[in-house]
Amino acid sequence: MTTEATNRPSDGPQGARPPGPPGGRPQGGPGGGRPGGRPGGRPRGRLVPRRRVCTFCVEHIKIVDYKDIDKIRRFVSDRAKIEPRRRTGVCAKHQRALRIAIQRARHIALIPFVAHHSFPSVRR
Predict the structure, then answer these.
(1) How far is CA 47 from the centre of its chain?
(2) What sign has the CA pseudo-torsion 88, 90, 94, 96?
(3) Where are the compositionally biased (Gly residues) regions (predicted)?
């Protein structure tokens, strides 16, 4: 006796796969497999973020200058960390150039390495 469930190549030797709909994904609701989803598939209230374009590419900047602190400071967080590409929208080529420019600006003290210095008071 041969059934469809026993002839699947993804089944192991024991056939320990739980029974479910074909395709391997459980159907949770009417909206694209999500519980409580909408018929269109996209949950209500969620907006798809717009693709950001690289500001350096738009302005046709080939070299990121470490002396241009106003432009560089936008890509450094309030905790003095370099912001990632997914947050700033800078392309990979300009992110590498930006990292080098920020490091150079830090070495000559144009941009701080840390957010603020707080020295603990020493009690004797």
Answers:
(1) 16
(2) positive
(3) 25-40
Tokens 């590419």 sit on residue: 57
> 98, 62 in Cβ contact below 8 A?
no
Ordered domains of the chain (ranges, CATH): 63-107 (4.10.640.10)
Single-letter code of the amino acid located at 11: D
The two structure tokens encoding residue 68: 């241009």
- The amino acid sitting at 17 is R
DSSP state of 76: B
Q: How far is C-alpha 103 from the geometric centre of its chain's CA atoms?
A: 22
Sequential pLDDT tens for the chain (124 residues): 555 555 555 555 565 666 666 665 555 555 555 565 556 666 677 777 777 899 999 999 999 999 999 999 999 999 999 999 999 999 999 999 999 999 999 999 999 999 886 767 766 6
